[in-house]
Amino acid sequence: MMLMYFVTGAFCFLLSCAQNILLLMLNTIEVTGKKDTRSGFGDGILEAARLNENIVALTADLAGSLKLGGFIKEFPERYFQCGIAEANMMGIAAGLTIGGKIPYTTTFANFSTGRVYDQIRQSIAYSGKNVKICASHAGLTLGEDGATHQILEDIGLMKMLPGMKVVVPADYNQTKAATKAIANIDGPVYLRFGRPVWPIFTKEEDFVFGKAQKLNDGKDISIFACGHLVWIAVEAAKILESKGISVDLINLHTIKPLDVDGILASIQKTKCAVTAEEHNIIGGMGDSVAQVAATHFPIPIEYIGTNDTFGESGKPEELLVKYGLTADHIVAAAEKVMSRKK
Description:
CATH superfamily of the largest domain: Thiamin diphosphate (ThDP)-binding fold, Pyr/PP domains
Strand order of the largest sheet: 3-2-4-5-7-6-12
Shape: globular
Structural class: alpha/beta
Oligomer: single chain
Number of strands: 14
Helix content: 40-55%
């Protein structure tokens, strides 16, 4: 009897230690500051241009919003102001690649995709042109500019184009790293980032194009997130861990090409998942994860994202609450999906 008590007590102690270790991993995710991801792009393109003389920047009358000031000052001859003519900008960018240039086009995400989809499809994607489509002010967190500017379907639009790569970094550091990395990726890339000041919690050196970033190792549930929702997922994971739920937390910054092996390694362990993104759940990152699961290892999945709707004008934090993109919503989805797994 004493032996049974000893074994049981030892098991509970080890379980408690394991949970504490997992929580410690989350607690080591340190906020080192706050800055908008678009500034990560501005600083990243400047550093990339210093290393590669073929990098050029194009904008559609939004140099200030895209933080191109440093680039323009240092490389004025490599900067092209195209005016409010986004379709022309995409055509110019495609043409510049023929001469060996690596053009980075810059404007809001809505104007980078929805307004110029035909030009991207025909002039860039179809012929595999080496254009980097850099899109700021994506998602609901654009805020007060409202539904006409808050594009929530751009990930779906771009990932469906053959040969197009899609990257959605989580914070300033990761956006800076991604901006530099895509200069070395052959072919068209869509880089999506945002407007609001956001916590900085990653390191530049941790970004690997095409490789999902593991932020916490867990066994009960997988949470996949991209963009601004990664930090919100970190907050949700801490709440879940405090409830004794072990979270496998994945920053899925590269949506195409997708890290299929990384996704499978996680869901085969946890057998359920939540996806979180500042995008329509129809056609977004969550659908990419679900496709992997449906094809290789079917599991229950819950989506966090906008649900077949446009946005509206409002403060970013209020919009995230209204449209269900908060830590509490992720926690509720996690508890719901765990009840569904066998």
